[in-house]
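User: Structure tokens for this complex, please. No commentary.
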Amino acid sequence: MPFPWDGASLSSSALIFLSILLMGLSAFKPHMFDSARTGVADSFSPILFWVSLPFQHVAIFFHDVTGLAQLQADNVRLEQENIKLREWYQTALLLDSENKSLRQLLNLKVDPQYKHISARVIADAGNTYVKSLVVPVGIKDGVMKGAAVLSGDGLIGRIVEVGEDTSRILLVTDINSRVPVVVEDTGQHAIMAGENTSTPILIHLPQDSEIVQESRLITSGYGGMYPHGLPVGKIVTDSDDVMGVVLFSDFDTIQIVRILQKEIPQTQRKDN
Amino acid sequence: MSAMSEQLDMFLRICVPYGVMFILFIFNMVFFSTPLSTTIEIPFVVMVIYYWSIYRPTLISPLLVFIVGICLDSLSGFPLGLSSFVFLVIRKTVSDQRLFLTGQPFMVIWLGFGVVSALSALIQWMLFGLMHMHWTPIQPVNFTIIAGILLFPVIALLLNLSHRALPLLPDQYSAVK
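Assistant:
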């Protein structure tokens, strides 16, 4: 009985040539195979979802067990923080109402409202070269290409491919990622560029910019891809004076992500 | 045993290594939520292709290797064709050395895997760099090679167990392709 997938008619050399051809096409037209990619991801997403589930539960379990000693100290710290935050909450309410009334006075066009879709991460295959994650939500769930994605701590990337049931997130650490950011304290604008390492770098900073270490970075909203004000990370400078960013999110332990979606008015939605 | 049950038995035996292959393929992509999970990638598929290219090349035809590579590229966001190219080169090179490798002690097979996985990772790294005109750091590639070499004996044992489930191969299929 012959083994299946014998494929005798297709020699290795012919398939190697075909692979080179595909690589060439992928290099010159990267989005040419997007629909095929999302089709494959859609087909594998149920399996990946169920396979990843036990590993994530085990990860949560180990995290809980190893974190028991830390819990008590955290509890005391959080109680103190909570008292401070209650005071800040009252201040925030006051400022919010003041902001609203000032905006009305100025007739300012407000930023669009965002809703979010939460999803569990199911795959991250290309981790050495391509920094991306796959989530089991797609067009059916209202996900749109270009949407910003956050973890509980801050920005992690944006949606680059959307299938029927799955989407791919390009992480901010990927070499193809560029995020317009602003230093919270000084208002200095820059671009955060991924380097395929855990620390992206800051580019397009003016020569005379004086940036303090550990300054907080948020998205500037320039370009319209990311909304203004999403927390990104803190600035660090390495021994070669290259400014890097320590991200707020820990990509190794992300389990659930939030995908931000602009809320489209009902009438516009019908037109689309 | 009737002809039909014999065929069913053979079919089920063949399913075992393909099932193991499929599980390892899924493990190559699934997100484990553990420290270093986004830094180190364990090359399970390379292990599978290396092992079967030595011991049963007919089990992984070039077409199957090509399809696996395309699926992996599609799921990982790699340039399409990159993994298939590397996998096909591994399959062809190892199959060509099959006569030497078969019957060698495990240490030699392990050493061979070290060479193959290092070369394949470096080819992948160079091609990716050329396609993007940007050299990514080499350190994660080194970690991947080391992780693959360290884990190979475990995966080889699993593949060996699935190998035992296979029926004996007729002479015409044992020939080197």
